[in-house]
Amino acid sequence: MAMLVSGALAVLLGIAAVALPVPYVVESPGPTFNTIGSDNGKPVISVTGHESFPAKGNLDLTTVYINGGPNGPVSLLEAFQAWLDGSKAVYPEELIYPKGTTKEESEQESALAMTSSQENAVAAALKELGISYEQKLEVAELSENSASEGKLRKGDTFTSINGKAVTSLAVIQSELAATAGAPAAVAVQRDGKAVSVSITPRKSESGRWLLGVALQYKFTFPFDVKISLEDVGGPSAGMMFALGIMDSVTPGDLTGGKHIAGTGTISPEGVVGPIGGIAQKMHGARAEGATMFLAPAANCEDVVGHIPDGLQVVKVETLDDAETAVKRLAAGEDTSGLPACTKN
């Protein structure tokens, strides 16, 4: 009887152990959304003030389900099952979320990143199409012990640095690098008035000269672009939004009716940046029928060895690279020569 009780107790303890939460995050393939299609009966992209055109085919943005961290605990059993599943990934919680991050904080950050991503996508698409718009750089925050403390304020809009007109962040970065720590003559607009200050930048641990401010773009576009997508956040859809906008405001079908998916952040200048969960996004894209996947060049290390059968992955660094790949597939041309991720 004692042995039976001990055996039963061991089983119960074993069941309890696998059900206990563990400090891991599990990433799984999420749904895809066609940026030139609809979601919940509404066009994902709608344009007002400019002629728009219906488009065929798919330009799918891809997503990842994230369990663990502020989204709720992951059990030891769930983590173990994910380890055995090639379409999923398991990470220590602290690699994904700073300690103490709440669900509300995570959702707010994700929503802000999505909004910024959409604005950048409009800017990048219009730039690629040669459509003019107004772009300004505004001070969003000052860092702790900022070199600009007492000289710049939140809401200041950059107009020039050392006499050079500030048209993009690259202008500020290149000027600070060129002057290597010398005081910079900065001109801004503040409450409708011109303000000039001299700021001595400080060198970061990475060796870059910084003014100690976080900057954000403020755009004035010649027409309105609305993106309607529920329950999706983060910056990783930027490139696919940009392609969808381009297809929406130009006649014809950019895809030629083909099924293409991808991921990547986008800058207003059209530079494609890295994202997380790319292996899961490739699996999700292939499961929904995509035959070509556009991947940021900076993610190639995570692409190699994780490509699902039947999916061609094209390495892209810019929106122009992505457009070129899509057009080649749409035209029925040989796409085998397009850039691909390879082992180093």
Descriptive overview:
There is one protein chain. By secondary structure, the chain is of the alpha+beta class. The chain has 9 helices and 22 strands. The chain has helices spanning 2-19, 76-84, 93-96, 103-129, 169-179, 238-248, 278-287, 300-303, 319-330; strands at 21-22, 24-34, 38-39, 42-43, 45-48, 58-67, 74-75, 89-92, 134-142, 157-161, 164-165, 184-190, 193-199, 202-203, 209-210, 213-220, 224-227, 259-262, 265-266, 272-273, 292-296, 312-316. It is globular, with a radius of gyration of 24 Å. Helix 8 (300-303) links the parallel strand 21 (292-296) and strand 22. It has 2 domains: 28-66 and 111-131 and 221-330, 2-Layer Sandwich (Ribosomal Protein S5, domain 2), CATH 3.30.230; 134-220, Pdz3 Domain, CATH 2.30.42.10. Helix 4 packs across helix 6 (238-248). Strands 8-2-6-18-21-22 form a 6-stranded mixed beta sheet. The longest helix is centred in the middle third of the chain and has 27 residues, at 103-129.
Stretches where pLDDT falls below 50 for ≥5 residues?
Answer: 9-20
Oligomerization state of this entry?
Answer: single chain
Rg, alpha carbons: 24 Å
State the separation between the terminal residues, measured CA to CA: 62 Å
Rounded average pLDDT: 89
Kindly estimate the percentage of residues that lie in beta strands according to DSSP.
25-35%
CATH topology call of the largest domain: Ribosomal Protein S5, domain 2
* Content-based structural category: alpha+beta
